[in-house]
Amino acid sequence: MTPTHLPGRVAAIPALPEQTRTPPSTTALEEFNTAPADEARRLLLTCLRSLCWSHRVADHRPYPDLDSLLAASDEAAYDLTPADLSEALAAETLPTLPDETYAVAYTALRAAHAAYEARFGHSFVICLDGLHADETLDHALAGIRSRLANDPEEERVVAAEELRRLARQRLVHSLRGAGNCATSQTQPAPGK
User: Fold this and answer.
1) Number of structural domains the chain divides into
2) DSSP 87-153
3) Contacting residues for 158 by C-beta, under 8 A, at least 6 apart
4) Under a CB-based contact definition with an 8 Å cutoff, are residues 179 and 19 in contact?
């Protein structure tokens, strides 16, 4: 069965396979640091669709190491205004769910997402990093259902934190890129 993408959006980033969970190479960070500002911002916008966030992170280059870049990313994400948060939430998309996911599960996810979007007026976002593929649907459904009990301000804070986590993981993944693996295969990804 081929996964069907649902109307509405649930943002997630799956865990990277264990053999690729290494920090990006110094070369990838150097390329990011020396790239033209517009190119760096375009890369950053693939991680989090906030113009303010991408400008702030790009404008503070060069970063001496990945931890410094991730700290700047976190700080910029913490400072998102409600308008910045709305901009970022509007651009989020559904994750690809495992092929084995049943149509009933998609129906449950559609219904939960519709209830969430009706209550909060924006897409549901959740970082699913570190979960096995067969756990993502259950985790997303449980997340939506539990967060429906939040008041709008509390949920804005939770959504902002999930966006920060997504941006961080996407940034690490973007800098890893094809052929940009570090020499050590044993070091965990930053923040792990």
Assistant:
1) 1
2) HHHHT--PPPPPTT--HHHHHHHHHHHHHHHHHHSS-EE---TT--GGGHHHHHHHHHHHHTTS-HH
3) 147, 150
4) no
Side chain identity, residue 161:
E
Digitized pLDDT (tens) for each residue of the chain, 192 residues in all: 333 333 344 444 444 343 344 455 558 999 999 999 999 999 999 999 999 999 999 999 999 999 999 999 999 999 999 999 989 998 887 666 666 666 777 788 888 989 999 999 988 999 988 888 778 888 989 999 999 999 999 999 999 999 999 999 999 999 986 333 332 223 333 333
> Does 102 map to a domain?
yes
Residue 1 belongs to a domain = no
Which is it for strands 10-11 and 124-125: parallel, antiparallel or unpaired? Answer: parallel
75 within a domain of the structure (yes/no): yes
H or E element, residue 43: helix 37-45
Q: Residue 153 belongs to a domain with what CATH number?
A: 1.10.3330.10
